[in-house]
Fold:
Amino acid sequence: MLLLSSPSEAQQTRVQVGVLTCQVAGGAGFIFGSSKALECILEGPKVRARYTGTIQKFGVDLGFTTKSAIAWAVFAPTTELASRALEGNYAGVSGEATIGLGLGANALLGGSGNSVALQPLSVQAQQGLNLAVGISALSLRALQ
Structure:
């Protein structure tokens, strides 16, 4: 992840503000990547918000997976988040391997002014047959 960040972004102090839990649609991966829809809930001591979006993987992504869940710890510059603070685009390095029941992890940086970091809290649990290594891009949009 640090390879994608500038030195000032890597050194920025962040505090954990909550947990983002997402349900990810299943689907097929293709040689050059995949795109899957997701529905998310951000929950923390001072925040609760719903988001929708997509997660895309660029690189080797071969196979098929069923619906899965991903949870990220959300880190921001302050505990006082705006209502749409996570809205925006994120990028990072990802990897997963699935044979039957498999695991994956995705660490991402983005959101408002690239100030939000999403660190894997629980690894992705999914079923299927899949191999994916490359760059992940996450796009989130706040729901009313």
Observations:
- The chain has one domain: 2-142.
